[in-house]
Design goal:
CATH superfamily of the domain at 307-489: Vaccinia Virus protein VP39
Strand order of the largest sheet: 6-5-4-7-8-10-9-11-12
CATH topology of the domain at 307-489: Rossmann fold
Protein name: Type II restriction endonuclease subunit M
Pfam families: N6_Mtase
InterPro entries: DNA_methylase_A-5, Restrct_endonuc_typeI_TRD_sf, SAM-dependent_MTases_sf, Type-I_RE_MTase_Subunit
GO molecular function: DNA binding; endonuclease activity; N-methyltransferase activity
Structural class: alpha/beta
CATH class of the domain at 307-489: Alpha Beta
Shape: flat
Keywords: DNA-binding, Endonuclease, Hydrolase, Nuclease, Restriction system
Largest sheet: 9 strands, mixed
């Protein structure tokens, strides 16, 4: 391992808030740029201290953030042959000491390093034992001696954990979306470190986002808020689901990875109030939950989890006669998800609840038909809920939420709630940032709680709601396929419009098409150039920036986002897909402090917006329009011209030019990125720019109307098709 922190070109770009191409340019143009100290020719590594010094001397950063310094120190401690997250365990133990015994660190910090190297490990072990019990502390595997690099790290962590170092507003954790609220202090510091680890190890980690974890907790209901409530997550990962539960509940968990289990244990302890007496009701262990259950015989009030998917080697051969399989129904080798369902059900007390996030194929694969049928016959399966794509990883798949209750003696309830909470979406409209979590949570919990109350009290079950949910007798689902997919059973909603609504759509389409019918009036008249072949003088966007005629802001990953709607407050956040499709922003970001250094840049009238990936799209921000006053999301360029020198419509029209964007594009294996500062614009006087800008604006308006008419036409055609197909519409006599 390196003896000092190192950074790659990508990480340097992140520190300076620029693209990787800018770092490559610095290396070529500045002979004093630090030389590589490691890595490979394709991905060299540089000494962090040298890079920080150079960036500060060039005025590109004022000071390296504490988080970056702490993260680099952690990377220095990582053993290339060991677990990539191993250094986070003692780091988390130190933050736990700050959280529960804040008075201990000032006294330790005054000690010389020779004494601190042994005194601090003892303090960490003792604090962990008081918080987690002797067994819990032993599972952390804390070192008995800390070297100088670790001592430098803990000093940085102490600085990072101070409230002043915490980011203003929401802080996102590794399983957190942008809206997850994390308190300032040691817990927030640990969340930020876990976030960096998750970003650096996306292939190893697929954490459950906090919104999905919160949905599982909401389905479990108020039963977990009472004293003595118990919950289990047998596939705990970093503990996102258990973190969504009340800290007063006794929480159990298991994960295959011992280091991840230790991090989850620390995370839960850090989010438990420091005043709660220890040992805390937390028990997270390592091991294979299916092959080596760490909690044999344990039954709890609720088992909640998102298990691993598509596992072929889950223990099928070793577990053929396991007591967890009801009526001897061993899940098929290719149905590992059903094995997890039965494992969760076995850990649920009679009358308790189990809820799992599963792939949609589990509801319909023929191999699992017998197990699904047994779950229906026993009355254990109570609900199958289809969620929209983007609710949880894998984000491109619309997952299902299965809810089960272990039947208590005398429980003869045999009905199933089938809920389709995944509305149909147009191409490109799905994704993690587009899930309306407040609405989704309200829909799921209201339907489930009404159904579950009817099951408990013997009252009437909720009436069917076309397009949303249906309650079916279990026997009616038992056929040759036993397909439990909600989309197959929930009656369709009313068509996109009844006859009056479709007539209104037809009228709107007629108006749009009438406006497009005369392109000669809508489009500017243009003839051949009088002097073809004589290229005009050009100036690059970079030169205009240096002269002060133009300001350029590149958003990079953009501000953190959360879906808009239903009480979500904040500034509308525009993404690159919103800009490309012409849709208004579908997400928001917290307003934060407008004067803060990291406050998002807001658009204003006259700005020109361009996506960083691809080309051919550039839109002018109009006063009071949907793009006015929004924050920049991911992969966007904002160009703010001086209107006395550059006409915004002229600038946008030039940026939509095919040849211009092709010349300024840099290509990777699968994408083209617009190098905005290389874009060349013709040198024209402002009067001529305004004439061309007006023409560009007319062409853009025609293109927008054309796309709007196409979308409206598709909606009308689908509504007519659906209405005629299901009999809600009929043709006039004689047709």
């Amino acid at each position: 391992m390196p003896d000092r922190p190192e950074v790659t070109a990508v990480e340097i770009a992140r520190l300076a808030g620029v693209g990787r191409a800018a770092v490559s340019n610095w290396r070529r143009r500045h002979p004093d740029f630090p030389q590589p100290v490691g890595g490979t020719d394709a991905s060299p590594a540089f000494a962090l201290a040298e890079v920080e010094s150079w960036l500060r001397s060039q005025g590109k950063i004022a000071e390296l953030p504490v988080l970056e310094r702490a993260w680099r120190q952690l990377e220095t401690l990582r053993d290339p042959a060991g677990h990539p997250a191993a250094p986070l365990v003692p780091a988390g133990a130190f933050l736990l000491l700050l959280h529960r015994e804040p008075e201990a660190w000032p006294a330790l910090a005054a000690e010389p390093d020779t004494r601190l190297a042994t005194a601090l490990p003892r303090a960490l072990a003792q604090a962990a034992a008081r918080a987690l019990g002797t067994d819990g502390a032993a599972r952390l595997g804390l070192p008995s001696l800390l070297g100088s690099t670790y001592l430098d790290l803990v000093r940085l962590l102490a600085e990072l954990a101070r409230p002043a170092a915490a980011p203003a507003g929401p802080a996102a954790g590794p399983t957190a979306g942008p809206a997850a609220d994390v308190p300032a202090g040691p817990a927030a510091a640990f969340e930020r470190l876990l976030t960096r680890h998750a970003e650096a190890n996306t292939r190893q980690l697929s954490p459950t986002p906090p919104e999905a974890a919160g949905l599982l907790a909401a389905v479990a209901g108020p039963a977990l808020t009472v004293h003595g409530a118990t919950a289990l997550d047998p596939a705990a990962g970093l503990g996102a689901v258990l973190l969504a539960l009340p800290s007063a509940a006794s929480r159990y968990g298991q994960d295959l990875d011992p280091v991840v289990a230790a991090l989850a244990l620390l995370r839960l302890a850090l989010h438990t109030p420091a005043a709660d007496p220890g040992p805390l009701p937390l028990d997270l262990r390592a091991g294979d939950s299916l092959r080596a259950d760490a909690h044999p015989g344990l039954t709890v009030d609720a088992v909640l989890c998102q298990p691993p998917y598509n596992e072929r080697d889950w223990g099928h051969d070793e577990l053929q006669y396991d007591s967890r399989w009801p009526a001897g129904q061993l899940p098929p080798r290719g149905e590992s998800e059903l094995a997890w369902v039965l494992h969760c059900l076995a850990h649920t007390r009679p009358g308790g609840l189990a809820a799992l996030l599963l792939p949609p194929t589990v509801a319909s694969r023929r191999a699992g038909r017998r197990v699904r049928a047994e779950l229906l016959r026993s009355g254990a399966l109570r609900a199958v809920i289809a969620l929209p794509a983007g609710a949880a990883p894998p984000y491109g798949v619309p997952l299902h939420l299965w809810v089960l209750r272990r039947p208590a003696p005398g429980d003869d309830f045999r009905q199933v709630l089938l809920l389709d909470a995944a509305p149909p979406q147009a191409a490109g409209e799905g994704g993690r940032d587009r899930v309306d979590w407040p609405e989704l949570r309200a829909t799921v919990t209201a339907s489930w709680q009404a159904f579950d109350e009817a099951a408990a009290t013997g009252g009437p079950v909720p009436a069917d709601r076309p397009g949303t949910h249906r309650v079916m007798a279990a026997i009616d689902l038992l056929d040759d396929e036993t397909d439990l997919s909600p989309a197959r059973h929930v009656p369709p909603a009313a068509p996109a419009g009844d006859a009056p609504a479709l007539a209104h759509l037809r009228g709107r389409l007629t108006e749009l098409l009438a406006g497009l019918a005369g392109p000669d009036a809508a489009l500017p008249e243009a003839g051949p150039a009088r002097q073809p072949g004589r290229p005009p003088a050009v100036v690059t966007v970079g030169e205009l920036v240096r002269s002060g005629a133009l300001e350029v802001v590149s958003s990079g990953p953009g501000a953190p986002a959360r879906p808009a709607g239903h009480g979500a407050e904040g500034v509308p956040l525009l993404t690159d897909q919103d800009l490309i499709t012409g849709n208004p922003p579908a997400a928001v970001t917290g307003p934060g402090d407008p004067g803060a250094p990291d406050a998002p840049v807001l658009t204003r009238a006259g700005d020109v917006l361009v996506p960083a990936l691809g080309g051919g799209v550039a839109r002018v921000v109009l006063p009071g329009g949907p793009l006015d006053g929004v924050a920049l999301g991911r992969q966007l360029h904002l160009l703010r011209p001086d209107p006395a020198l550059i006409d915004p419509e002229f600038l946008a029209g030039q940026l939509r030019s095919t040849a211009l964007t092709r010349r300024a594009a840099s290509h990777a294996s699968t994408t083209a990125r617009l190098d905005i500062r290389r874009v060349e614009l013709p040198r024209l006087p402002p009067e001529r720019q305004r004439v061309l800008g007006a023409a560009f604006a007319r062409v853009a308006a025609f293109d927008t109307a054309l796309h709007r008419a196409a979308a409206l036409g598709r909606t009308l055609a689908q509504g007519l098709t659906d209405g005629l197909a299901d009999g809600t519409l009929e043709l006039p006599p004689g047709e």
